[in-house]
Design goal:
It is a single chain. The protein is an alpha+beta fold and about 160 residues long. The protein is about 30% helix and about 15% strand. Among the domains are: about 35 residues, no CATH class; about 60 residues, lambda repressor-like DNA-binding domains (434 Repressor (Amino-terminal Domain), Orthogonal Bundle), CATH 1.10.260.40. It has a three-stranded antiparallel beta sheet. A two-stranded antiparallel sheet has the order 1-2. Strands 6-7 form a two-stranded antiparallel ribbon. Strand 1 and strand 2 form a beta hairpin. Helix 3 crosses helix 4. The N and C termini lie far apart (about 70 Å).
Length: about 160
């Protein structure tokens, strides 16, 4: 048993239209509206055969440990666009992207997705991904392991 959407009574409900709204109401409240047919689920007329293979996931550039997005990606994008003599609008049209996205990328306000990186590299004929550089950290001689102090560069006033 459910509650009437109009008065809150528990009981058997029917779907009616009252003042343009479809509500499930009790028999008493149903007198104030027009009965509406219950929507039936749509069943496809036929089913297509589906492949038994599992979908192949796209390689994710950000989780690939061999390449990473260049720190100066925004400068590379802007220079390549200007080298081709294109405005931000021109680049946006060629890539089917909004101008605001191009602006945010060039200003460094947004990091591109994997798909956007591929589109930018293909359209501008540039490389935005670069090999991961190993970071060597020298720990203090007093400690056996790596500490936060070994990783942080402290600014002195």
């Amino acid at each position: 048993m459910a509650d009437c959407e109009r008065c809150g009574k528990k009981g058997r409900l029917t779907l009616v239209e009252i003042a343009g709204a479809r509500l499930y109401v009790c028999q008493d409240c149903g007198k104030h509206g027009k009965p509406v047919q219950e929507p039936r689920p749509i069943v496809p007329a036929y089913t297509s055969k589906t492949s038994s293979r599992a979908p192949v996931p796209k390689p994710d550039a950000m989780t690939n440990r061999e390449l990473e997005l260049a720190d100066d990606f925004n400068v590379r994008i802007q220079r390549a666009r200007e080298r081709k003599g294109w405005s931000r609008e021109d680049l946006g049209k060629k890539m089917s992207e909004r101008v605001s996205i191009i602006s945010k990328l060039e200003n460094g306000e947004m990091r591109p997705s994997d798909d956007l990186i591929r589109k930018l590299e293909r359209t501008l004929d540039i490389k935005l991904m670069e090999p991961v550089s190993d970071v060597r950290v020298q720990g203090s001689s007093a400690s056996q392991g790596l500490t936060l102090g070994d990783l942080i560069t402290r600014k002195r006033a």
